[in-house]
Design brief:
The chain is α/β, with parallel strands linked by helices. It is 40% helix and 25% strand.
């Protein structure tokens, strides 16, 4: 189905020069409809050809909002491409169908450009719209059918064509007519390809470079695959290959070749990027007994692709039923997780943080548990990854913050200096609402900001380090304490820690667990202690489970620790007593 755009067609080919004005004596005699709009999308110019094309007089059009005069229908995906090209490049060219307020329905070749004022600022858009004959023999850019069935950026078949072609292949497979591999066997393989580093390219180098990367990826895929294979753009940075194979190994070999060809750097101007790709593979020799077998096969390949990403990216994964079972189990948990907050199934337990010398309690860390009505108490490593993928992690994080501060507030009189540590996920950090949420929770609980410790992992900075640091600066301005959790395992380590607004370093338990026997672990802990103390930071060791480990930390000069040496996490009053 074509996508309906909220903005009427106002699109430019790169050869068209920048437009500065549309006034003058040429407008009345131009054969194409010329429409100008200002930055408020109000019509400023409407020539005689526009009157003929749309059946609306200039006097009735000028001063009106363009979207109230014309509805524009783009081929799938072109609406977003048009807006992006106009915003980034100041121009766009494409084919659309338009329905005017008068009832006229026309097929249009539309060219649009940005209008600039003398200071170089955008003051509107101008569109030159030419009516094309939909019954004319297809040729070149006038092939409207090609525009409707192929991705406008890469030229590959779009999702609609992919789904229809896959359905037809399955119908032939069911009837025993094909498709057949080179050796005559009748199996169908679907390879779901997702670029690994495309978001970083888009964010770091801009959408124009990102578009060129997608075009190059499409070209490489088309050259790598056989002429009989279907290569389609599924959407965004996702591509799908459908091919007939004799055996599973044929599909796996193609997945390996795709990974190899997309691992080679792509040079665009002065930039050199290597996005990489993860590939999910599914092979069928019979059509699935499913209400929607096409969607089922694509879902299986997509599931395998995500499993490949989870195992390190830049690799392929072959689908099997256990992956589907795992997905279905996760979906059931995801559905139940939506109800968990409202149904009171979430609860908090606490672990103490103590000084290494006197083992005096200085604070506690709030740890989330889910008391599932059927599965019992679930640990965070079971449901938090699901919450991350589904976006529920922000809601869960807000609940933990409010509830733990309320618990601490109840004990303020008995423990006025006790601190509370709460973990903050990467999604919370860049959600745009964390500072407001913390401010409100502190106000509601009456807890002093200096008693709240927000623990951030190093990996939380990897997605958008600039935005993450800005949020930490805002939180520091509130008086909140910032701790860098799992230190030594992430991307920043020694290079960036001095630039971050943190107060506490927490040595990851993987290093602490190897004390005292492992010399390398001892060297790492000693280095972190030297770094932290040199920067005036408090250093806390995580995962302390026995007296020997604590003794080593005491001799090394570690400030504080936490771990099972003091018992399992429990209710706040039990931990403090």
């Amino acid at each position: 189905m074509p996508a309906r755009s909220p903005v009427a067609a106002v699109p430019v080919v790169p050869a068209v020069p920048a437009v500065t004005d549309v006034t003058g004596s040429l407008l009345p005699i131009l054969p194409d409809a010329v429409i100008g709009i200002d930055r408020f999308e109000l019509v400023t110019h409407w020539n005689e050809a526009a009157e003929r094309t749309y059946g609306i007089l200039a006097g009735d059009a000028i001063g009106q909002r363009l979207t109230e005069l014309i509805e524009t229908i783009y081929a799938q995906g072109d609406a977003a491409a048009a807006r992006r090209h106009i915003h980034v490049q100041g121009r766009w060219h494409g084919f659309v169908r338009q329905i005017s307020r008068s009832g006229a329905v026309v097929e249009i070749e539309s060219t649009v450009a940005t209008l600039y004022d003398h200071a170089g600022a955008s003051r509107g858009l101008v569109a030159v719209n030419r009516v094309v004959d939909p019954d004319a023999p297809p040729s070149g850019d006038n092939d409207l059918n090609h525009r409707a069935t192929h991705d406008s950026l890469t030229g590959l078949p779009n999702r609609t064509v992919l789904m229809e072609g896959l359905a037809a292949s399955m119908a032939r497979l069911r009837s025993g007519e094909g498709p057949a591999g080179p050796g005559g066997k009748r199996r169908l393989a679907v390879l779901f390809c997702d670029l690994d580093g495309f978001k970083d390219i888009n964010d770091g180098l801009g959408h124009a470079v990102g578009d060129q990367v997608l075009v190059t990826v499409a070209q490489r895929l088309r050259r790598r695959c056989r002429s009989a294979d279907v290569v389609a753009r599924f959407g965004g940075d996702e591509f799908v290959v459908v091919m007939a194979v004799d055996a599973v190994n044929d599909a796996v070999a193609m997945a390996s070749r795709i990974i190899e060809v997309l691992d080679d750097p792509i040079v665009i101007g002065d930039a050199e990027v290597a996005p990489g790709v993860s590939v999910g593979v599914t092979v069928i020799d019979a059509v699935p007994e499913d209400d929607d077998p096409v969607a089922s096969v694509l879902r299986d390949a997509d599931t395998a692709m995500y499993h490949a990403k989870g195992r390190g990216r830049g690799r392929y994964e072959l689908f099997d039923a256990s992956l589907r079972d795992n997905v279905e189990e996760r979906l059931e948990l995801a559905t139940a997780l939506r109800r968990a907050v409202g149904d009171g199934e979430l609860e908090l337990v606490y672990q103490s943080r103590r000084t290494c010398g006197e083992r005096r309690i200085t604070g506690v860390e709030a740890l989330l548990r889910w008391r599932h009505p059927e599965l019992g108490v679930l640990a965070p490593d079971v449901f938090l990854p699901i919450a991350e993928r589904t976006g529920r992690i922000v809601e869960l994080g807000d609940w933990v913050l409010r509830q733990s501060l309320a618990d601490l507030s109840d004990l303020t009189r008995q423990h006025p200096e006790l601190t509370l540590a709460v973990n903050v996920s990467a999604r919370q950090l860049i959600s745009g609402r964390l500072t407001r949420t913390v401010t409100r929770a502190l106000s509601e609980s009456g807890v002093e900001p200096g008693r709240l410790v927000l623990e951030i992992t190093e990996t939380a900075f990897s997605e958008d380090p600039v935005a993450a640091r800005q949020v930490l600066e805002e939180l520091k301005a509130l008086g909140v304490v910032i701790a860098l959790d799992d230190f030594g395992t992430g991307w920043s380590s020694l290079q960036y820690v001095s630039r971050l607004p943190v107060d506490v370093l927490k040595v990851d338990r993987s290093f602490v667990a190897d004390l005292p026997a492992e010399l390398r672990a001892g060297a790492v802990v000693a280095s972190v202690l030297g770094l932290g103390h040199g920067l005036g930071l408090l250093v806390v060791a995580e995962g302390v489970e026995d007296a020997d480990t604590l003794g080593v930390l005491q001799r090394m000069g570690c400030d504080e620790y936490q771990g099972f040496i003091d018992g399992e996490p429990g209710a706040l009053t039990d931990v403090l007593n």
